[in-house]
Design a protein that fits this description.
21% of the residues lie in helices and 35% in strands. It is α+β, with helices and mostly antiparallel strands. It starts with 10 loop residues before the first strand and ends with a helix.
């Protein structure tokens, strides 16, 4: 693990916070975009019959979206994709740690105004560029400690969930640590041209609390739990697939 690339080498393709309101939560009291960001969203889409609300706007190196659907609420921090010219790099919102540090205060502010929750999740996809196909597979082999991977192979995908007990102080709470690893080749395209192939190691993570019947997560645990989920995602990026 000491020979793995520094975490600064990982770039975030997206970050996600998902909150699952408890049955006792009053949805109308949960803050929307304007209350959280202090300004109106650039776009707003409402589907009253389906009880869906989505608000979006520019943020940092990309765009932020807030989406309410029955049973869950999602914040997504995503890159803005250009169609008129080829991107110079893989679509991203900056270095993984920098992206977290930028969006985290917004998420914390929003959580502080939320009602009780039944579950909480932090998701992300991060990419580590490499020179070629072989380098991507050699590096992937270093992150997957229980897998022996032939660098001349292809079409490899590895998914695993390693559950851990939570240290948040919530009784009997456990956390799913899902990660999906791939070595990927991509051609970046615009409306009129395309780039040479680019290669990278990719890991998609969903760090979420295991469902517990009738569990109510109270406000005093929100930030503690959110930080724990983020720390587990960072650990995966730093150390790879570990117990």
């Amino acid at each position: 693990m000491d020979n793995l690339p520094k975490i600064e080498k990982w770039f975030a393709q997206y970050l996600r916070l998902t909150a699952f309101p408890a049955p006792t939560c009053k949805l109308e009291s949960i803050p929307k975009w304007e209350e959280t960001l202090g300004e109106l969203p650039e776009q707003s889409n409402t589907q009253p019959k389906a009880k869906i609300l989505e608000e979006t706007g520019k943020f940092g190196k990309g765009a932020l979206s807030l989406k309410f659907v029955p049973g869950r609420i999602d914040w997504h921090y995503l890159p803005i994709l250009l169609t008129d010219k080829i991107a110079e790099d893989l679509p991203n919102i900056g270095q993984f740690i920098e992206a977290i540090e930028l969006v985290k205060p917004v998420m914390v502010k929003w959580l502080e105004s939320c009602g009780p929750l039944s579950r909480l999740a932090f998701g992300s996809q991060i990419n580590l560029p490499t020179e070629n196909h072989k380098d991507a597979y050699v590096l992937l082999n270093e992150y997957l400690h229980s897998v022996e991977l032939d660098p001349n192979s292809s079409d490899f995908s590895y998914s695993i969930n390693r559950i851990r007990p939570s240290k948040s102080g919530i009784s009997d709470l456990k956390i799913n640590r899902l990660s999906r690893w791939r070595a990927t080749k991509m051609v970046l395209k615009s409306e009129s041209s395309e780039s040479d192939p680019v290669f990278f190691v990719s890991v998609e993570m969903d760090i979420n609390t295991v469902p517990i019947k009738d569990l109510i997560i109270s406000k005093e645990h929100f930030n503690i739990l959110f930080n724990e989920l983020i720390e587990m995602a960072i650990e995966i990026a730093e150390k790879g697939d570990i117990s």
